[in-house]
TrEMBL record:
<dbReference type="GO" id="GO:0045892">
    <property type="term" value="P:negative regulation of DNA-templated transcription"/>
</dbReference>
<dbReference type="InterPro" id="IPR028978">
    <property type="entry name" value="Chorismate_lyase_/UTRA_dom_sf"/>
</dbReference>
<keyword id="KW-0238">DNA-binding</keyword>
<dbReference type="GO" id="GO:0003700">
    <property type="term" value="F:DNA-binding transcription factor activity"/>
</dbReference>
<keyword id="KW-0804">Transcription</keyword>
<dbReference type="InterPro" id="IPR000524">
    <property type="entry name" value="Tscrpt_reg_HTH_GntR"/>
</dbReference>
<dbReference type="GO" id="GO:0003677">
    <property type="term" value="F:DNA binding"/>
</dbReference>
<dbReference type="Pfam" id="PF00392">
    <property type="entry name" value="GntR"/>
</dbReference>
<feature type="domain" description="HTH gntR-type">
    <location>
        <begin position="4"/>
        <end position="72"/>
    </location>
</feature>
<dbReference type="InterPro" id="IPR036388">
    <property type="entry name" value="WH-like_DNA-bd_sf"/>
</dbReference>
<dbReference type="InterPro" id="IPR036390">
    <property type="entry name" value="WH_DNA-bd_sf"/>
</dbReference>
<dbReference type="InterPro" id="IPR050679">
    <property type="entry name" value="Bact_HTH_transcr_reg"/>
</dbReference>
<keyword id="KW-0805">Transcription regulation</keyword>
<dbReference type="InterPro" id="IPR011663">
    <property type="entry name" value="UTRA"/>
</dbReference>
<dbReference type="Pfam" id="PF07702">
    <property type="entry name" value="UTRA"/>
</dbReference>
<protein>
    <submittedName>
        <fullName>DNA-binding transcriptional repressor MngR</fullName>
    </submittedName>
</protein>
Length: 209
């Protein structure tokens, strides 16, 4: 390794382990004290190595917890009206949806007010898990008026409802109201998304028209 600084040598060791698959996304790195002992260096040198890896987006350090191999993430702007499927397809990212519920129900008072329909009018109720690169990232629940979308199908909801609404039905989505709140995950969400039951997750409640 020649005259390469010691902290860079340590970073190289972990970079090689990660590239070789010995350390996988989400795996914890040894503690700083363990690294000091293993490489016979100071805490400052260890922290320089970890900072270098973090700056390269290879690991992430969580205060009070440790350093972990960074999981590959795809950022998706939840505030854009562009659909989940279209947004990520433009970036050649593999996505799909697993439809869990596809049924027709009667609208209750709150749902009727949200959708501007009559109470007891029939609506599609769809629940699906959205996947990015085979990883579940979102549990989505949708209600759509049956009278407006009588030909909605299971297959449509496996892909993009935005494409169906705008390209097939030729309707324009011109408004989106969204509420984003931190909540403790439900048992259903924990099972579907492999969430930590002790950590809050984000719940988004949109109404689009």
């Amino acid at each position: 390794m020649g005259n390469k600084p010691r902290y860079r040598q340590i970073a190289d060791v972990f970079r090689e382990k990660i590239n070789a698959g010995e350390l996988k996304p989400g795996d914890a790195l040894p503690t700083e004290s363990s690294l000091q002992e293993a490489f016979s260096v100071s805490r400052v040198t260890v922290r320089q190595a970890l900072k270098l890896l973090a700056d390269e987006q290879i690991i992430e350090s969580i205060q009070g917890s440790g350093s972990y191999v960074k999981e590959e993430r795809v950022n998706y702007d939840i505030y854009q009206l562009t659909g989940f499927y279209e947004k990520l397809a433009d970036r050649n990212v593999d996505t799909h949806s697993d439809v869990k519920i596809f049924e027709v129900v009667k609208a209750d008072t709150r749902l009727a007010a949200t959708l501007a329909i009559g109470e007891d009018d029939k609506v599609w109720h769809v629940k699906r898990v959205r996947f990015i690169k085979q990883k579940p990232v979102n549990l989505e629940e949708t209600w759509m008026p049956l009278a407006m979308f009588p030909d909605l199908t299971w297959e449509v909801m496996e892909k993009s409802k935005y494409h169906y609404v705008e390209q097939i039905k030729k309707l324009v989505i011109d408004r989106s109201e969204q509420e984003l709140v931190p909540v403790m995950p439900s048992e259903e969400a924990i099972a579907a998304l492999a969430l930590d039951p002790a950590k809050r997750s984000w719940k988004k409640s949109p109404a689009v028209s």
